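Hi V.,

You were right to ask for the full record rather than a summary. Here it is.
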Amino acid sequence: MKRLLSTVRKAWKLAVLYLLILVTFSYAMFQGGFVSWFLFYSFVPFAIYALFLSFYRLQHLQVSRVFLKTEYNAGESIKVEITLKRNISFPLFYIVIEDELGEKLRYSQEKNWTKSFLFPWFKKEINWDYQVNDLPRGEHHFQSIRVKTGDPLGLIEKEIHLQTDQKIIVYPAYEELIYRPLENHFDQGMTASKERVQRDTSMAIGIREYQPGDRFSWINWKATAKRNDIMTKEFEQRQSHDVYILMDCMPSGRFEAIVSFSASIIRAILQKGAQVGFLSSSSERVAFPIRGGEGQQTQLFYHLAKVKDDSPVPLDRILEAEGFLLQQNNLMLITAQLTRSLIEKAGLLVTKNGSVTIFIVKNEMESLLPDELALKGAANARGLRVVLVHSGNFKAVFSEVARA
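Predicted structure:
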């Protein structure tokens, strides 16, 4: 239907053009005089240009889009360079060029920097670049480029959408943290180890990818030769330092802060030399087994870049359904809301040798409500640790523990 309307509109404009030529010529012939012929001859160049433009095809245009890179962190800027090439140098009075972005990226911009009005004239190659600041987290698609041109009087207009499907991935913003494994001794206070996770090298239980800081003697040469990648031994004592993270994906105004803190603590744990597992349950459940290394960080960051706050069930329901969490020694829950039901379900996961930490993410300078303070006391009585996290000040989470 749209194609039919577009064809009718083009035919109508072309008919109007011929009609205007006929009217101005008839007026000059019957009226005579300098003024009438001046009007006719003044209109003829515009009419001829519009007539030629009506037969000019935009389908021969070639367009390319270039990014400096395809992976960014939230808050960074991206510079996009667009090159438009054409085979013939037919004069174009103007073109309107617009890069059609994905919905999320388009709505994040206060001003439409992705649209420009250019005067190419006889140029065969047209270059244009723009910049998008404060990239939002997510996977963003650049679907097509819209090119529109016309004659000065607006009698003939042509438009085409050139498909150039490309995408970039914007990882969540993170802060550099120094992760300190906490020991759960409420009667004597909490302690934090600043040393890198140590391993009992007397008992190897598996192999993993090489990480910076691993000793030369830990390399498993047989597995390295087989996989054509450096593999090191995995030792028994490391298991006590493994961390499993459960992130709340319920709709919340603090969800971006939750994702950012999750990325920060994942990076810090892996840099410490420990391993981390992860579970999020938004519209679909996604779980990652406990692993270490840069490969694990890449997978988790890619997931965090695309995760949405559209979970149909609260965090306490997920705790109740995921029975394997009972086997985790160190469990971390990251949420924006502390509820009694969450404390009750999390309290069932506390074991003699394990610990459960609930991170409550708040906005900057926002404190716990009176009800939440009471719930925090109830959580401590059940052996749970509740830690307040402020957006933009993630470093204070472990530095305050260290001072304690």
